[in-house]
Specification:
Blueprint lengths: L5 E2 L1 E4 L17 H14 L3 E4 L1 E2 L6 E2 L2 H5 L2 H7 L3 E4 L9 H11 L3 E5 L3 E2 L17 H6 L5 E2 L3 H12 L4 E6 L2 H12 L7 E7 L9 H15 L3 E7 L4 H10 L3 E4 L6 E3 L2 E2 L3 H14 L3 E2 L2 H8 L10
Parallel strand pairs: 1-16, 2-3, 2-13, 3-6, 6-7, 7-10, 10-11, 11-12, 12-13
Antiparallel strand pairs: 4-5, 8-9, 14-15
Length: about 300
């Protein structure tokens, strides 16, 4: 693992997991997404991981027209690296999932590294009345849902987006996903440095136990040596303890309302920027320096903001 002198903070602004009923602070309109993203950058995030929502209902969408309503505003308002999802919303086709990133040609796009059972139905049991009709069925269908990322699908996404010079945030929900990345690296389809986002606490993926973080890191060390940067995210209440542990080990961190709606126990986060400010404060108390967007560009060898499509 490459131990950087500075820690990259990524912020995942809205995602496609949480629904509007869960928090009044979840950004869903273009202006809300843009302002939350800019606020996160001002608070210290070097990378902004972005999904889009239908503004009327908050339902996830990968329509490039939705991204066009906030990406230029974000680019004008801050210099953070934009990272566009290719996971999209649950149940979308690959054409739908890739559409926004192929239009935007961003510096970074997310890349799920394997298929797995992705179950977020438990969230529905904690809510009595939903604000929108789509929310409960969307959550409950994941009891019988596989997030599909076959080798053919992954190779297609890597190749089509790689043609734009886009680099990737490799989202690894389990140990086997690291081996999948090594497969594509061995074939020369993707090149180092690899930005490996290890994800903990999603039902169907690896659990949020400290031993599992050590296993993911030691496996990545064995597979990629000094050719990768480790980043950590964890779902829900595990977010801040887990990413802090990852930073102590020399990794980078991801926070944001996609992954966790809370700032502390029982306290909803009022914004993405509030979560970024909290983790930045923790990292600085540990005498760790925070990477600027330009630091992150140098580390990850991205193509720069002048070469994107928006």
């Amino acid at each position: 693992m490459r131990r950087a002198d500075k820690v990259i903070i990524s912020c995942a602004i809205t995602g496609s997991i949480h629904t509007p009923t869960m928090s009044p602070h979840l950004p869903v309109t273009p202006d809300q997404i843009a302002q939350n993203a800019i606020g996160a950058a001002e608070a210290g995030a070097a990378i902004l991981h972005l999904h889009a929502r239908e503004p009327e209902t908050g339902r996830p969408t990968q329509d490039p027209e939705a991204f066009k309503r906030f990406l230029p505003q974000i680019k004008d308002g801050c210099d953070a690296i934009v990272n566009i999802t290719t996971g999209g919303g649950l149940g979308m086709t690959m054409d739908q999932r890739l559409a926004a990133a192929k239009w935007a040609a961003p510096e970074i796009a997310s890349m799920n590294m394997g298929s797995f059972n992705f179950n977020i139905s438990g969230a529905a049991g904690r809510i009595r009345d939903f604000n929108h009709e789509w929310e409960q069925p969307y959550l409950m269908m994941t009891r019988d849902f596989i997030l599909s990322n076959t080798f053919t699908q992954i190779e297609r996404a890597m190749t089509e987006l790689g043609d734009f010079g886009t680099r990737f945030e490799y989202e690894c929900y389990d140990v086997g996903h690291l081996y999948n990345l090594a497969h594509f690296a061995d074939r020369g389809i993707v090149k180092p440095p690899f930005f490996v986002q290890s994800i903990f606490g999603i039902l169907g993926g690896i659990g949020a136990e400290p031993e599992n973080l050590m296993t993911m890191k030691s496996t990545a060390d064995r597979l990629f040596g000094n050719d990768y940067y480790l980043s950590i995210l964890a779902a829900g209440r595990h977010q801040f303890p887990f990413v802090t542990m990852g930073a102590i080990l020399g990794g980078n961190v991801r926070v944001g309302l996609e992954d966790n709606l809370y700032l502390g126990k029982g306290e909803l986060a009022p914004s993405n920027g509030a979560q970024v400010a909290k983790i930045k404060r923790i990292l600085q108390e540990l005498s760790l320096d925070i990477a600027t967007p330009d630091d992150a560009r140098r580390m990850l060898e991205t193509k720069g903001p002048k070469n994107v499509g928006f």
